[in-house]
Amino acid sequence: MIQILPHSTLLQYVYNELPPERQREVEEALQHDPDLAATCADLLLAQRALDGVRREPRPETSEAILRYSRTFLSKS
Amino acid sequence: MDLLQPSDSALISLYLAGQESAFAILLERHRSRVFTTILLIVRDEDVAEDLLQDTFIKAIHTMKSGRYNEEGKFSPWICRIAHNLAIDSFRRGKRVPHVSLTDNEILNNTLTVADDGPDDILAREETHTRLRALIQELPAAQKEVLLMRHYGDMSFQEIADATGVSINTALGRMRYALINLRKKMTANSLDYDSNLTPFDTSPVCVQRIAS
């Protein structure tokens, strides 16, 4: 049986926000609905692309934060 | 998830008990997503570095003064602080936004695969720079949800609460953000660019299950 899942549910699935039983329902639906699976793949690809944009601050900035934290400790 | 890694909650407890190294782990764990969230809003490297410091300084004060709510999750909390500071800064608009591609510092800061040569790193950074530009083109409400969910690690319910909309509205905005982004990526020939998926691509196998 082909289930019609709302896109919002699929989005929550992609971001791992569904309880286990709802997650299983989505996985079942993905196996029987190629369009849904393709939409899911698109979401995963966009998600993966966004991961690549992630950036690191300069080490000096992290060090400045840690230094401040130590100063704060010594004051308290 | 690595079960040997202490939870954020445990690290905060250790930090408040005087273990400075616990805070160092907490910072290392979260600085990238907080910095990315800020950078994608203010679009200025130097401002983002300053705001990252401000964010963590604010967090240190809140934790040390006993005002941190242990029931909440650290990641969405710190990202909410960062988001608010970044939005305030961007609205003040003191600086002209710039994200330079040629700056060697950016290349040094990019997460890379160890075996990649300079050309691969440069190509990937070019691709990511173009993607960052596409994110900037999204409508403000969509971009806000995207940053909070993807980089801020806030749940859709937390985003709904923080932005004063229903969870369905937050989900709808995220959906359109991703759809718009995919359309823009396709239009900009970023769709099948291997630079965007240099790592494990296993989750995409979902597509093959359907056949």
How would you describe this protein?
The complex is a heterodimer of chains A (76) and B (211). Chain A is 75% helix and 0% strand. The longest helix of chain A has 19 residues, at 34-52. Chain A has one domain (7-75). Chain A is an all-alpha fold. Chain A starts with 6 loop residues before the first helix and ends with a helix. In chain A, α2 crosses α3. Chain B has helices at 8-16, 20-42, 45-64, 74-92, 104-109, 118-136, 140-151, 156-163, 167-187, 206-209. Chain B has 211 residues and is mostly helical. Chain B has a domain at 1-98: Rna Polymerase Sigma Factor, Chain: A, CATH 1.10.1740. In chain B, 67% of the residues lie in helices and 0% in strands. At the A-B interface, α1, α2, α3 and α4 of A face α2, α3, α5, α6 and α7 of B.
- SSE run of chain A: HHHH
CATH class of the domain at 1-98 in chain B: Mainly Alpha
Count the beta strands of chain B.
Answer: 0
Largest beta sheet of chain B, briefly? none
Low-confidence segments of chain A, given as residue ranges, are none
Number of extended strands of chain A:
0
Biggest sheet descriptor of chain A: none
Give the amount of beta strand of chain B, in percent: under 5%
CATH architecture label of the domain at 1-98 in chain B: Orthogonal Bundle
Rg from alpha-carbon coordinates of chain A: 21 Å
Order of SSEs of chain B, N→C?
A: HHHHHHHHHH
Query: Low-confidence stretches of chain B at least 5 residues in length (pLDDT < 50)?
Result: 95-115, 192-211
What is the terminal separation of chain A in angstroms?
64 Å
The structure class of chain A reads: mainly alpha
Shape of chain B: globular
**CATH T-level topology of the domain at 1-98 in chain B:** Rna Polymerase Sigma Factor, Chain: A
- Rg of chain B computed from alpha carbons, rounded to a whole number of angstroms: 18 Å
